[in-house]
Design brief:
Chain lengths: ~325, ~325
Amino acid sequence: MILTVTLNTALDVTYRVPELRPHASHRVTEVIERPGGKGLNVARVLAALGHDTVVTGFVGGVTGTVLRQLLARFAAAPPDTAGAPHGTITDALVPIAGTTRRTIGVVDATTGDTTQLNEPGPIVTTPEWTAFMDGYGRLLREASAVALCGSLPPGVPVGTYAQLIREAHAAGVPTLLDTSGEPLRRGIAARPHLVKPNADELAGLTGSTDPLRAARDARRRGARAVAASLGAEGMLAVTAHGAWRAAPPRRLAGNPTGAGDAAVAGLLSGLVEEVPWPDRLARAVALSAAAVRAPVAGEFDRTVYEEVLARVEVTEHPAAA
Amino acid sequence: MILTVTLNTALDVTYRVPELRPHASHRVTEVIERPGGKGLNVARVLAALGHDTVVTGFVGGVTGTVLRQLLARFAAAPPDTAGAPHGTITDALVPIAGTTRRTIGVVDATTGDTTQLNEPGPIVTTPEWTAFMDGYGRLLREASAVALCGSLPPGVPVGTYAQLIREAHAAGVPTLLDTSGEPLRRGIAARPHLVKPNADELAGLTGSTDPLRAARDARRRGARAVAASLGAEGMLAVTAHGAWRAAPPRRLAGNPTGAGDAAVAGLLSGLVEEVPWPDRLARAVALSAAAVRAPVAGEFDRTVYEEVLARVEVTEHPAAA
């Protein structure tokens, strides 16, 4: 199975309003709730691709209860995968006394744009952290890969991802790290197999706005491979075996939330299936485009996925000077 | 006791963000949850004024559970009334299968302005409505006054407030109606003792933007008395015994959410205490101003209340031509 870690899970709430006007009062016309946090979205896409997944991290309070109920419902009957291969999603979230945060996405029906409001996460106590680490160690024994996803909740040390990566190394499990800022910087130093920053995160890490140069720098800092998302322009991978760029055949309009998580699922599934890098990158780009066409994070449009996958253009970069 | 009816209760969530920018992502720096819906705010202010209150309406789902827990906490230990007289708040809400809505107020810390996002309410079934009406009839027997507050949830007939007013008439209980649009229009025709529209609601009802003319028109339509809130300019009352205008001594900056509910509590407490109309209006204006100075609906600043109450200017209008 593939393990995904989401330390700062969220109940994702999407509000649709006719038009968002600051300082006005709005009637919300539609409310959608989903289990949220990057690792949970990654797991849902992986399951739709046929991979058995286990999700861990922290969950608590009434929002945590709703999150688990929704996750169980998706695990039982994913809404968007009729006839498609389907892996299991196992809930190995660790209960905490605090309350899982909500993240609210307000979709302006006039422009299609989303305004995001993210609550801070709950405090995690030392005994809760110990319970998580015990479970993490046990889960690694069964894992073919682990994805470490998203922000850290308050009180969790900034070097946590580095610690989780070292544990995975000790268990012989390849790691994918998808975070930003200082947790990314510290995590990279622990030599994860793959990091998936976007261009901004890569620039923040390395100081370079040239993605190829920045990705090479990130490898020197410790990442064994870097797959950088370049938004509508696709993705760039820099690995020990070469560097490739993959571009979708056309720019797709839609909701970019969850596109990065779909790309992570594409990279991870490619890793455990031992797909060659160019195909792995093509899969990530096609899933990312197909996620943009789905209304909520954690889902993708299978028709768009197959159509784009057949037409992604992958080009190899010349070796570094 | 004073009964307040809130058919469309809400879990009020207040988010503080450094600055609200449409289509951007925001970290919420503070989350406050309160039992919400106009009648619940009115009850909390009445209790702080020393009146025993009973709240009824509908409540359901996980948000409903949180709402009831918060209400019980406020009833046990109101946070803003140290040393002040304190009445009881009794929860007579009727459980439903649907889920109580959330209302989210996003406070921009830079400007102090609030952007409001209101979820639609849950569907109320016929058996649930019957259970409510049975309880309402029983509660009226003990009530010295009843306030009918706020919007109607989906599926509740638009003439509902008229029905509740007729039941109260039959039980000999005076009624205050605080709603808008068609439910206000229909409710007024059932001859409530008092309606408390704001200037916009009054203009929508009567077509007149002159509040005095519109209030007189509302009386001709059935309201025995009209207390219209005029925002920062105070309030206007038109009754069978005369017409008065009450103005606060100065304009107070703050959060206007809940100011109308505090005014309703002032009017209701004045009604059951048989306070003369000019004093009743002064109390409503002072509570409204004191609510503007409190961070959340259902609370008021007692120091501001007492200071403003001593200085509200009430003037009598000449009799209608």
